[in-house]
Amino acid sequence: MIGESIEPMGCCVTEGVLSQQLRENGAVFAPKFDGSGLITAVVVDAASGAVLVVAYMNAEALAATLAIGKVHFWSRSRERLWMKGETSGHILQVEEVRVDCDQDALLIRAVPAGPTCHTGAESCFYRQVVVRDGEAVLTGTQT
Amino acid sequence: MIGESIEPMGCCVTEGVLSQQLRENGAVFAPKFDGSGLITAVVVDAASGAVLVVAYMNAEALAATLAIGKVHFWSRSRERLWMKGETSGHILQVEEVRVDCDQDALLIRAVPAGPTCHTGAESCFYRQVVVRDGEAVLTGTQT
């Protein structure tokens, strides 16, 4: 588990300095933030593997997540750093952080302290898309 | 399983017509595409639940995914519709499509026909981010 006592740090090298080979195979963590300074983060339940939430981190949220061991996001609507669970208490305790081949997405295994979705559902993905009579509609309810 | 014989369709209503209540609890599929016309899609292995890849769909890729039952993305680098596996043969056969609370991310359970990552790894998330001496570095190799 990533500890809580680690001081915040500069988390990564500047984008663009790595060759594709080093980016995909090397040990250098060089997260590729998009034009808005964000990277996609997928959080899964460390025990069940279920996908809980997809949200976005800026460099500050990523550094805080790694340093403190609790998932932080950048809230696009509120335009501020946001520790998941800061209001509800339903924090996400980090067990593992992974990065994909081209380093533009993060996968976080975490232990949820309660339902992850603000609706009260365990996961934000509580509805299924189904095709009926050629039309895509949603089924399922919050669980 | 979503069938292969369904004709392409208009997949969804126009963004912005739903109240938050209907968006989060209703049966209307109203995917929220970003300013570039894209929505984040997370694909997990239907058998193991492992996260395989995170990529992006535009409305056309989403409609093709639902209609044909094979995962399609929008390639941001090549700027074109792209059926995953069209070159490698490692397609992703759709078992289930889910959407999150505010309908700005998709979760797809799929059966992979081979390694999903272009590097040959089963999953694009083959490396772990670890903190050593206050520095975030990567460990792990492609499997």
Main attributes of the structure:
homodimer; 143 residues; Ubiquitin-like (UB roll); two-stranded antiparallel ribbon; disordered N terminus
* Biggest interface and residues each: A-B, 52 and 52 residues
Number of E-state strands of chain A: 8
If you consult CATH, what is the topology of one domain in chain A?
Ubiquitin-like (UB roll)
- Strand numbers in spatial order across the main sheet of chain A: 2-1-6-5
CATH architecture of one domain in chain A: Roll
Q: Tally the helices of chain A.
A: 2
Query: What is the helix fraction of residues of chain A, given as a range?
Result: 10-25%
Q: Helix and strand string of chain A, N-terminal first?
A: HEEHEEEEEE
Instruction: Name the shape of chain A in a single word.
Output: globular
Q: Give the full name of the CATH homologous superfamily of one domain in chain A.
A: Phosphoribosyl-AMP cyclohydrolase
Rg over CA atoms of chain A: 17 Å
The unreliable regions of chain A are 3-9
The pLDDT mean of chain A sits at: 89
Summing up helix and strand content along with how strands pair, one would put the structural category of chain A as mainly beta
Quaternary organisation of the protein chains: homodimer
The span between the termini of chain A is 28 Å
In the CATH scheme, the class of one domain in chain A would be Alpha Beta
Beta-strand content estimate of chain A: 25-35%
